[in-house]
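Section 4.2 – Deliverable D4.2 (structural model, holo form)

The reporting period included a commitment to supply a predicted holo structure for the target in complex with hexanoyl-coenzyme A. Inputs used:
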Amino acid sequence: MAANETAEPILLEDRRGAVVEITLNRPKVLNALSFALLRALADALGRAAADEGVRAVILTGAGRAFAAGADIQELADMTAAGFIASDVFRAWDEVAAFPKPLIAAVNGYALGGGCELAMSCDIIVASQEARFGQPEIFLGLIPGAGGTQRLPRAVGKYLASELVLTGRQLTAAEGERFGLVNRVVPPALVMDAAREIADRIAAQSPLAVRQAKAALRAVYETPLAQGLELERQRFYALFGSEDQREGTRAFLEKRAAVWKGR
Ligand code: HXC
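Output (structure tokens):
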């Protein structure tokens, strides 16, 4: 534990119905993603993935940041061999592979690894005060958790190149304009906005939600023909499920569907 930390847990987990809210909680260092915090996050996501009652997860940060990136204190002494020997990137891989919807409620700075963490989520809600950026260039580094790949896919090559090469931050409004942010709300309403989306997702068939997320993820990982095939297979797979029968029948009978997740 860093000297400036108290016994307060570095990660908070709250359950609201079918939604888990995870809060990065190192506000004094703007929720810098220490190796311990990344591990705690991966563990929390592992629990949320395994719990059938959890339908969506909201990720946010305590204080004035979502996360201001990897913990520079730890990076300062890191070596290539140290990275290879550590499980730091396991956490990143687990976030990226998380099978249920992840909503980033970006309350403040989302920089470096913090921006990469938000971009690994499925939906990004931002406070008007949020700032997004990849400032690694100021440290003599480059993004290491997907920034050079996900940022261009979100905002296009030219803006992403400017952000990565100059370290400029985007405002939340710019993020929304360029496709990085779903919606921008006043600071006090960030969690409400994220909860509203999470609750809407949690009200759907968990089987269909899972297949939809898997198919959407393929957009960035496969050529179009393969992605279309994967979508079709996941579409077929839903036929014969109780939820698919229930959903279509409920529509025809003009009533609300009752999902079983089977
Ligand atoms: C460790 C950090 C930190 C970080 C802020 N702090 N960011 N500590 N790692 N990433 C600490 C500061 O040292 C300071 O501690 C306290 O948090 C408050 O920050 P200030 O700088 O005083 O606040 P402010 O002036 O408002 O500036 C905010 C800021 C700035 C613009 C966000 O803190 C900043 O530039 N942070 C670094 C952002 C960054 O470079 N991120 C990329 C990291 S590399 P004290 O003790 O002085 O109060 C990365 C690679 C990921 O993420 C690759 C995957 C592993």
